[in-house]
DNA sequence: TTGAAAGCGATACCAA
DNA sequence: TTGGTATCGCTTTCAA
């Protein structure tokens, strides 16, 4: 059998309460008792039972991180940073994948209510107000990304401004027929809508007429679907001057298609992405992108979450994380 | 306040035990009482407290997955599959990053002993027998990958055979000066040792003399370090006929360096990887690699883990997952 | 500063 | 089939 506080207390000749005091270190304990207790802990190889502690305290020390798909580099980098920052602050992280399925998001919320989780960082895909109902009975929730949600705290990058800046940057290299890859057709992802909006705002500023044929829809934001979407597009349309992909993953799929067709990047067409995933730097050619500090996203999300744990009542807080355009070989003029 | 079993029991006019029976569905319950209880659960919006359940049962329903670095595509794909399979079987997954630091592995084991985790799937990097001491007091552990460990259950791909086959495949395209990228210099990663061994076995079969100058060391297996290592190598050595990178991530870094130097792949040098990460298919050119079913790795790991939970005593079990060479553009002759 | 005892919520034993 | 009750391990009042 595993040792418990009682065993430690008996061995150290003190009460369970004293053992608890030594471990949690809030109530002062005399040096000699502390030593005896620590000795006993070592001898018995005592490890506290976190289920019991969680039951008693109402907190588990675990937060959940819900992402659409861990296998995508973007999600993976976010997860990496959240896990790292959380660990530094003494939290464990449970990973959940929503697969962009609102039902999974619901499921998650109910799981979160079952007290094994003290809070939830949720990166939703679909623009859906209803999926997250932040009620009093729910644990604290922080949303990641461009969700239009008025209730939960949120950390995001200003996608509209970033997409606008990227479009302007592409135009500055002398390219004016700028296509975008990743616009949403049916179900609207918030990011798709906002990035398209930023793109169109830039065109307007530049006095470039809108051309619907330069919007290339792409339902899933993976290299695979992007490659497929771009391939069919190129079969039916002339090559644009520049291609702004709404994620780096899509850009990588696009680069692959262009290369296979012998279309030179950036000579024949410039390509840009969004997210600054690690592999973008090693793409061929290296990928121009919208970069932001993912570590900062993690830090802020965790800060909002922990603050929300102690103050459930105050209003929604939104943290906007800075971005910058990184120009690499894929758009050199 | 949140509702508890007692509240539900009172409302349904039954005892707490009956509520528990309804929820767990092992002990038969009469139809009418079941209905009453289910009604009460809905009305009170009851969600069981998993900490309490965990305390009572000694099981939490959570497993931990420990990986060196979630941000690498390989780890991310493994994590994705484990989370998915685990979810299907009703498990939650806690993610831990070891950063290839043995201390983190220790820390993890002790955390695992604290009963918030029913089992651990560990993907270690460093060949270190001592890091995982599988004793009676520890939760079940399943190791992922090429670790030389005699105690814990393990799921792996036969790296020696795979590296041998890949080397032979490269040789079949008429390339005989085959370099490998990723050999370990100081601390030995098990995978590096085994893959080097397979490579050398193939050369021997082919009657090709060993050439130490074709072993390119690379401490960390990231695109960045691979790019750096290859760049310095090329500054001092002639170009080999083929470059076998021990991971796809390294291969992606290598492709980037080769492209920047105007070295054509596969015309001037063939490049191959290992792992078959999703982006390899969209690399420029698409990457020849050693592929294996990551979903299967996840399934087997979870199977071993759950079986081990009910049978702590039986001997070590090892599952070997099949691989196959996928030839893509990066090695076309 | 330390001890005794109650209780967090769910489950399982033993009766009925 | 169902009800009462002890129990899992820890923390925290309240007293000493």
Automatic annotation (TrEMBL), chains A, B:
Claim: Transcription regulation is one of the keywords in the record: yes
One Pfam family hit: Peripla_BP_3
SMART domains: HTH_LACI (SM00354)
Entry keywords, A to Z: DNA-binding, Transcription, Transcription regulation
GO molecular function, one term: transcription cis-regulatory region binding
Domain HTH lacI-type: 3-57
Stored InterPro entries: HTH_LacI, LacI/GalR-like_sensor, Lambda_DNA-bd_dom_sf, Peripla_BP_I
Keyword Transcription: yes
Source organism, top-level taxon: Bacteria
The name this protein goes by in its record: Putative LacI family transcriptional regulator
Species in which this protein is naturally found: Arthrobacter globiformis (strain ATCC 8010 / DSM 20124 / JCM 1332 / NBRC 12137 / NCIMB 8907 / NRRL B-2979 / 168)
Source taxonomy: Bacteria, Bacillati, Actinomycetota, Actinomycetes, Micrococcales
């Amino acid at each position: 059998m595993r040792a418990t506080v009682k065993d430690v207390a008996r061995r150290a000749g003190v009460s369970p309460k004293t053992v608890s005091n030594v471990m949690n270190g809030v109530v002062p304990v005399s040096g000699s008792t502390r030593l005896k207790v620590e000795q006993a802990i070592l001898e018995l190889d005592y490890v506290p039972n976190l289920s019991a502690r969680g039951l008693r305290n109402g907190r588990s020390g675990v937060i959940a991180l819900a992402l659409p798909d861990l296998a995508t580099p973007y999600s993976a980098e976010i997860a990496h940073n959240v896990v790292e920052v959380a660990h530094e602050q003494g939290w464990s992280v449970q990973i959940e994948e929503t697969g962009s399925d609102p039902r999974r998001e619901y499921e998650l919320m109910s799981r979160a209510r079952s007290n094994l989780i003290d809070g939830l960082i949720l990166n939703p895909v679909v623009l859906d107000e209803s999926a997250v109902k932040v009620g009093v009975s729910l644990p604290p929730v922080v949303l990641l990304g461009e969700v239009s949600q008025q209730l939960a705290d949120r950390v995001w990058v200003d996608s509209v401004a970033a997409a606008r800046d990227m479009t302007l940057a592409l135009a500055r290299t002398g390219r004016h027929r700028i296509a975008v890859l990743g616009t949403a057709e049916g179900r609207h992802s918030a990011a798709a809508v906002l990035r398209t909006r930023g793109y169109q705002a830039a065109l307007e500023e530049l006095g470039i007429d809108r051309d619907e044929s330069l919007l290339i829809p792409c339902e899933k934001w993976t290299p695979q679907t992007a490659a497929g979407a771009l391939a069919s597009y190129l079969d039916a349309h002339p090559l644009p001057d520049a291609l702004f992909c709404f994620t780096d993953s899509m850009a990588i799929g696009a680069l692959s298609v262009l290369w296979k067709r012998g279309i030179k990047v950036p000579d024949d067409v410039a390509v840009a992405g969004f997210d600054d995933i690690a592999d973008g730097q090693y793409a061929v050619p290296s990928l121009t992108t919208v970069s932001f500090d993912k570590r900062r996203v993690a830090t802020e999300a965790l800060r909002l979450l922990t603050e929300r744990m102690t103050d459930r009542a105050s209003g929604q807080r939104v943290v906007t994380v800075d971005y910058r355009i990184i120009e690499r070989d894929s758009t050199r003029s």
